[in-house]
Amino acid sequence: MSQRLQLFSDGGARGNPGPAAIAFVAQNERGQTIKTDTCYIGVHTNNQAEYEALLLALTYAMEQKAQEVTCYLDSELVGKQLNGQYAVKNAELQVLNQKVKAFKAKFKKISFINVSREHPQIKWADSLVNKTLDAKTSKSAHSKNSPITKDIIVQEVGAGSIFVHTSIRTSNLERSIDFYSRFFDMKVKRRLDFKRTGAKIVFLQDAQAKGSTLELTFYNSQTKFEQPEFEDRLFDHLAFEVQDIHRTISAMKKEKVTVTDEPFMLDADTILAFVEDPDGTPIELIEHKKNYS
């Protein structure tokens, strides 16, 4: 039994919310790995999964009767919420936050430290999360309980449907056009001006017209432009495939674009990153390495 434990936890969801898994790596004071664990937790958000992973690790530490625990997390949000630097506004995260804080009474000392997602033990925990999700996906794909009748009905009703565009609001139409044109090579296809409602709409699409259309909407009468806290949003994010994600991120940083998640490997062939447009709309950047090899 080790008196001091180092806990490296990670949680992730494929979709936000989406199928989620959690994992942790526990080391003793000599840096020796003494325990790893992972499990599937159903549909959760990424932040919920981060909290659940930490709770799994702390439960193990309590069972081992550890006296001091140092918790390492790559989630800046969760780490700063636990250290009192960020407020916890989301109701579900408030419950999870209180559960973690309840563990303080179980140990003589507990601390929460943010580290990079590139930390070796965090990467190990992340790999366990992905293996668990891969196994769950594989199992689901081979399920024999496919809803055949429902599939037939959906095909009849939805046959021929095509997803054509996504609409987001903007506080500055020309600024948004410039942003999406410069960083994603989108071209203005059409402009509409609705005098009755005071709305101005611009449709943009990639130069090759292969992807979906983005609709930018501006209302002359709108004076308040605020994005809700991430956990309270109904709209999640836009997604753009790019040829060189690191070059794109570098160019964005030079223009002071907010980068919320630095590039990271989703799997062997896919790199992801997350940024925000000038109005705070989240954007996922995707680089499929096979496409450009």
Account of the protein in words:
By secondary structure, the chain is α/β, with parallel strands linked by helices. It folds into 3 domains: 132 residues, Ribonuclease H-like superfamily/Ribonuclease H (Nucleotidyltransferase, domain 5, 2-Layer Sandwich); 63 residues, 2,3-Dihydroxybiphenyl 1,2-Dioxygenase, domain 1, CATH 3.10.180.10; 66 residues, 2,3-Dihydroxybiphenyl 1,2-Dioxygenase, domain 1. It has 7 helices and 13 strands. The strands form 3 sheets. It has a 5-stranded mixed beta sheet with strand order 3-2-1-4-5, with helices on both faces. Strands 6-9-8-7 form a 4-stranded mixed beta sheet, covered by helices on one side. The chain has a 4-stranded mixed beta sheet with strand order 10-13-12-11, covered by helices on one side. The longest helix has 22 residues. The protein is elongated, with a radius of gyration of 22 Å. It starts with a strand and ends in a 5-residue tail after the last strand. 25% of the residues are buried. About 2% of the residues have low confidence.
Write the layout of secondary structure elements.
Blueprint: E1 4-13, E2 18-28, E3 33-44, H1 46-63, E4 68-73, H2 76-82, H3 91-102, E5 109-114, H4 120-141, H5 148-158, E6 165-169, H6 173-184, E7 186-194, E8 199-206, E9 213-219, E10 238-241, H7 245-254, E11 259-267, E12 270-276, E13 282-288
